[in-house]
Amino acid sequence: MDSTIIYLVIGVIALIALIFGAMLGYSSIKLKVEADPIVEQIDALLPQSQCGQCGYPGCKPYAEAVANGDDITKCVPGGQPLVVKLADLMGVDVPDTNSETPETMVAIIHEEMCIGCTKCIAACPVDAIIGTNKAMHTVIADLCTGCELCVAPCPTDCIEMIKVKPTAKTWNWQFDQNLIIPIVNTTEITPKLVVGVEKNNGK
Fold first, then answer.
1. Is position 154 annotated in a ligand binding site?
2. Is 158 annotated as a binding residue?
3. What's the pLDDT tens digit per position in 52-100?
């Protein structure tokens, strides 16, 4: 084949690629859909476990629903700390927690029943289960969000969800806004009071 024809074919292909590239670039700018920044901020706070316990197929759809006014207390893995963060972000009051709070659960694997099928590993959205094929698996409790997605795929029913006992690390410490704490300023002789809620002349 004549080299002139080869160069001509290459040139035509390059020209077509350039035209299509320009069209795609123009379309990406012209048809760009701007994402709602509040949705992105809410989604960044969510645990990204994609467990569906909130009633939505994933964290992003739930973030969109919260931005549109849905309840901020539906994320079980996030728990009360997440509710506080979402309330602060949305500029709303933290919902009343006097009602019964969902219990924090974590998965455990009864290792004597585990056959090493790896199905639970594939189902875990946060990589909280470790193990290899035909070898015993175990759950890293600190990473487990309690989504229960690993329970159903297990063919030997060796996975159980148990309650997490509160510890000093997991306890929901709540500060009393009306608390008055006496402290001494080291630069002054007169003791002072730190008041949680500022009072305006007793009003």
1. yes
2. no
3. 888 888 899 999 999 998 889 888 888 888 888 999 988 888 887 555 5
